[in-house]
Automatic annotation (TrEMBL):
Transmembrane segments: 72-93
Keywords linked to the UniProt accession: Membrane, Transmembrane, Transmembrane helix
Protein name in the entry: DUF445 domain-containing protein
InterPro entries according to UniProt: DUF445
Keyword Heme: no
Alphabetized PANTHER family for the sequence: INNER MEMBRANE PROTEIN, INNER MEMBRANE PROTEIN-RELATED
GO cellular component, one term: plasma membrane
Region Disordered, residue ranges: 14-44
Top-rank lineage group of the source organism: Bacteria
The species this protein was found in: Streptomyces pactum
Biased composition (Gly residues): 21-30
């Protein structure tokens, strides 16, 4: 064997060692003990940041073993064409004939193709042969930029308004949700979940905080809004419709009954207010007269819908309703009365205690499966589901609401969503990220080396053949 051939064989042996066990094979965990220890030390903090990218699952280990097998296959094919090249050159020098030249050319081109593709594949994950050649170790060096590009790609192609609307419109959420809600079991489930959520929310809220908020809101709303005009309009409408007459009937009837039962008390009150110098029999006669006239007046007012007193009362209420709406003094007096009433401690305690009663009522209704609240909610859900499943207008409204909400979220929080991708990729450890990516796509990349060897050999054979034909 000549010196050139000997050097070629030695170079190929070194290349095999580099490809199979040297710095060119992270899939086998190559490197010295010190390097592995250092790598483990660097990976420990990453395990707390993102365990998925600093450890290998059983599936990942299977893939890594597959990558190692393909590396050995590709390297073995490179060594095979190298041996073929050496033997062909040796045979050519021994005068074996023209065929040796064709074989040597094919093997030589196969080696070139295999080495070129090995360099290209290796440059994705690390520096070939550990030499810091420019534009190599692309993935570990460009990891953060790849994360940014991935985030931008997702933001532009998946989080755009047009894409979200088209996808949701294709899904038809309104009709699907309606069909789902129309099933009684599903309505029961939603009702139970809503009841649990309501109970949880009411349990978390502190009564004192809610009472303070409710009291302040009611007081502030009452202070900010003048009530006299509203009361005046309401009173005017009630008088115009005759709604106050039932109240007058009730009051007069009760007054008549009270006078019948307490006639002695009325006469005693009249006699007690008489001057001391009048005779007792006169005071008695006056008391009896006042009582009889008062009873007659109340009886006539009760029995006569057209009684003059009723008409006077109607005119009084009508005038009072008008004053509440237009008279400045009357409105001011009502506002002062409102302020005094709201400022009383009893009123504030009543407002505060209202929340406790309402809360207890709602919690009790939410816990009872047969309560009116839960039954009404269930019936409303079933009705809503039936309408959503059959009414295109309702479906369109629901789809529009869902689309609007989704578009608002993706357009408003697109940067936050994409930053989740970029920040997550940035937090990954470069070494483990490279190994994990290689474990997932490395097997296919090794086929590039094999194809390069085969295609290179065929191309070399073709070129050599054309050259011989043209030379002849």
């Amino acid at each position: 064997m000549c010196g050139t051939q000997q050097r070629t064989v030695e170079w190929m042996e070194r290349t095999k060692a580099e490809l199979s066990g040297g710095s060119g094979d992270t899939g086998e965990g190559a490197g010295t003990d010190a390097e592995r220890s250092a790598g483990a030390g660097r990976a420990a903090p990453g395990a707390f940041r993102d365990r998925a990218m600093t450890s290998f699952s059983p599936a990942d280990e299977v893939k890594r073993r597959g990558v190692r097998r393909m590396k050995l296959t590709a390297t073995g094919l490179l060594l095979f064409v190298a041996v073929v090249y050496v033997l062909a050159e040796w045979a050519a020098h021994r005068g074996a004939g023209a065929w040796a030249g064709y074989v040597a050319a094919a093997a030589e081109a196969g080696m070139v193709g295999a080495l070129a593709d090995w360099f290209a594949v290796t440059a994705l994950f690390r520096h070939p042969l550990g030499i810091p050649i420019p534009h190599t170790a692309i993935i570990p060096r460009k990891k953060d930029q790849l994360g940014v590009s991935l985030g931008e790609f997702v933001g532009e192609n998946f989080l755009s308004e047009d894409v979200v609307r088209l996808r949701l419109r294709t899904v038809g959420i309104g009709s699907r949700l309606g069909a789902w809600l129309a099933v009684p079991e599903h309505a029961d489930r939603v009702t139970a979940e809503l009841s649990a959520a309501l109970r949880g929310a009411l349990t978390v809220l502190r009564d004192s905080d809610v009472q303070a908020v409710v009291g302040e809101a009611i007081t502030r709303r009452a202070d900010a809004q003048e009530i006299a005009p509203g009361i005046g309009k309401l009173l005017d409408r009630i008088v115009a419709d005759g709604g106050h007459k039932r109240a007058v009937d009730l009051i007069v009837s009760r007054a008549h009954d009270w006078l019948i039962l307490h006639g002695d008390s009325v006469m005693d009150a009249v006699q007690g207010g008489a001057p001391g110098w009048t005779p007792r029999f006169v005071d008695k006669r006056v008391g009896e007269r006042v009582y009889k006239e008062l009873l007659r007046f109340v009886t006539e007012m009760r029995d006569m819908p057209a009684h003059p007193a009723r008409g006077a009362l109607d005119r009084f209420l009508t005038d009072f309703a008008s004053d509440l709406q237009s008279d400045t003094d009357t409105r001011a007096r009502v506002e002062r009365l409102k302020t005094e009433v709201l400022g009383r401690g009893e009123v504030q305690d009543l407002i505060a205690s209202a929340w406790t009663a309402v809360r207890s009522m709602i919690v009790s209704a939410a816990e009872d499966e047969r309560s009116e609240l839960r039954m009404r909610v269930r019936a409303s859900l079933l009705s809503l589901g039936a309408r959503m499943a059959s009414d295109p207008k309702v479906q369109g409204k629901v789809d529009g609401w869902v689309e609007g909400a989704a578009v608002y979220v993706v357009t408003t929080y697109r940067r936050e969503i994409t930053s989740l991708i970029t920040d997550t990729v940035a937090s990954w450890d470069a070494e483990h990220t490279t190994k994990k990516i290689e474990a997932n796509i490395g097997r296919d990349l090794q086929f590039i080396r094999i194809n390069g060897t085969v295609v290179g050999s065929l191309a070399g054979l073709l070129i050599y053949t054309v050259s011989r034909i043209l030379g002849a």
